[in-house]
């Protein structure tokens, strides 16, 4: 995300689903995964302009296609 995206007030209501690939705990323990923040919906304030992020962005989903 660039500085202009972080400061865009129009996107302040967006949420980002973050799935952290660095999780190494037991499989299927959803409680730990969500409570410790390995997976969850993050607000715009989660992103910091002075931090580098590696992102995998999925294409938009269209209602008539899967």
Describe the structure.
The chain has 66 residues and is α+β, with helices and mostly antiparallel strands. It has a domain at 3-46. It is built from two helices and two strands; from the N terminus they run αβαβ. It has a two-stranded antiparallel ribbon with strand order 1-2. The radius of gyration is 14 Å and the shape is extended. The protein starts with a helix and ends in a 24-residue tail after the last strand. The model is unreliable at 1-6 (pLDDT under 50). It holds the Pfam family Peptidase_C78.
Spell the H/E element sequence.
HEHE
Low-confidence stretches: 1-6
* Helix fraction by DSSP (H/I, runs of at least 4): 10-25%
Q: Please state the overall shape, judged from the principal axes of the Cα atoms.
A: extended
Report how far the terminal alpha carbons are from each other: 26 Å
Number of strand segments: 2
SS field, number of helical segments: 2
Query: What does the main sheet amount to?
Result: 2 strands, antiparallel
Mean of all residue-level pLDDT scores: 79
Structural class: alpha+beta
Strand adjacency order, main sheet: 1-2
> Rg from C-alpha positions?
14 Å
Which features would summarize this protein structure in a list?
disordered N terminus; two-stranded antiparallel ribbon; 66 residues; single chain; alpha+beta; 2 helices; 12% strand
């Amino acid at each position: 995300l660039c500085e202009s995206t972080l400061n865009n007030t129009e996107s302040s209501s967006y949420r980002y689903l973050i799935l952290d690939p660095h999780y190494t705990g037991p499989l299927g323990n959803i409680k730990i995964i969500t409570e410790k923040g390995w997976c969850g919906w993050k607000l715009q304030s989660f992103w910091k302009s002075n931090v580098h992020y590696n992102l995998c962005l999925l294409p938009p989903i269209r209602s008539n296609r899967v």
